[in-house]
Design brief:
With about 525 residues, the protein is an alpha/beta fold. It is built from 19 helices and 20 strands. Helix 11 packs antiparallel against helix 12. The longest helix is centred in the N-terminal third of the chain and has 25 residues.
Length: about 525
Amino acid sequence: MSDIIFVKLGGSVITDKRKRETVREKKIRRIAREIKAAKKKKKNLKIILGHGGGSFPHYPAKKYRVKEGIVSKDSWRGFAETRAAASKLNQIVTDIFLEEGVNVVSFQPSSSVISDNGKIVHMDVRQIKFLIDNQQIPVTYGDAVLDQQKGCTIISTEDIFVYLSKLFLPKKIILAGEVEGVYTSDPLKKKNAEIIPEISNKNIDDVKKMLGGSHGTDVTGGMVSKIMKSYDLVRVNPQLKIQLISVNKKGRLEKAILGKKVKGTIVRYIGKSPIPKYLFLDVNGVIVKQGVKPWFELLKDLVKDKLISKEDWKEKLFPYVEMYFKRKMNRDEAVKLITTNYAEALKGKSYESIINAAKKTLRKIRKAYNPYILKLIEHATEKGWKVILMSGNFREIGELIGKDVGADVVFGAGLEEWNGIITGKVTGDFMTASGKALSLQRVLNRGETIKEKTIYIGDDYGDWKAMQHCGFNIIYQPDLSKSDKLTLEEREWIDEIMDVMRTKSIPNLVIATGSMESIRLESLLDRIF
């Protein structure tokens, strides 16, 4: 766990949610002074600050149904108004903090976030890391963002914290609202409402039944949504505690930041996390030794079996394969072109014939399996780890390799088929650097794991870029001072990974091995963020 604390100021704290664009300036100033005091007393304290939109973006968001996406001719207008209103409030909050002597730097989510059906799939976090490493406070907020499926949507500060928590691993998240925690019923309406001091796996089902929505206009989900997102985070990482408090009383936020006991509700997970650990493995160069490309071997067999014509091979495939191997074309561009042309060349062929050819290819490349990686997979499986392969395209051979070595899931682009016939189109993600990154991020975003429970083993610069995209920031790297083309057959570091797996607390471990395009370890460290 890091020394980072996330603090979220609810929209109802900093605005009057019942009156459009009404700021509670005095309260914001007091909160700024409390954060300043906490930072002064705890010199190494790192804080990521977030705030809700309150009475600023929620009104246009609700009017235009922005959370639902592009649903009418006025939707883009609603997106623009919502984004502008959120930014306006953030500017006010930032200005007040600066006036109170707190160095906060605004971080606009909509400038870097891409979501997919309401889930954040990408957010550039390098600026945030740079700021907190230099003891500055980045401040982010709920915003309207572009969405790959809906066109646009609303993401809350909690959504952002969910994403960031899996990358920065805070020890505590403080959700500061109007009320003193979570109550058995609405304390603003019922005097006999009782505070729930702790929410855990022991009582989460009962708590869900008694919770209602938040007060005023709120398009981000209300209290149930906030509690469930909090619970999902602690379920994945039981070392994390999430604290819900009121900041209506002076000094309470400062005490909570400093770890002192304050009235409120703690969300935590009791016992061992049920979330599995994940071992991500690249296929080319990791499972199969360097020098043998399963997809290339499959292409040769498809030509040999006349499933791909010599004309298609010479005109649509070989030129790009040659440029790929000679590094005359950007690797990611070459991967996309080769895979796309591969699918087009097989249009109209039976899917079964392709699989049969892949099975013949598999029998040949088994000789190139890395025995130490096979041992690692066996060890990981015995310890309850999930094994995921990055097939590097094509998925037809990747899935056979995955089944052969005992992997749970295989990511990669493959052939689309309809009623057993190849359509000529590609399905799945291209295993480019960005494709690998998205695959990794989806697993993290689904709440299945966090970086502390993840090991990624890759062998080239594309793998490194995927690691960088997802915010991995600790490297285990063999000594590159002698050679930048070390083999994976180094029992010493494979055994060390196994030792790491045996520990209860898994570090954020990234293994970048093999040829890194002549990039030395010092350069790799500089490239993290």
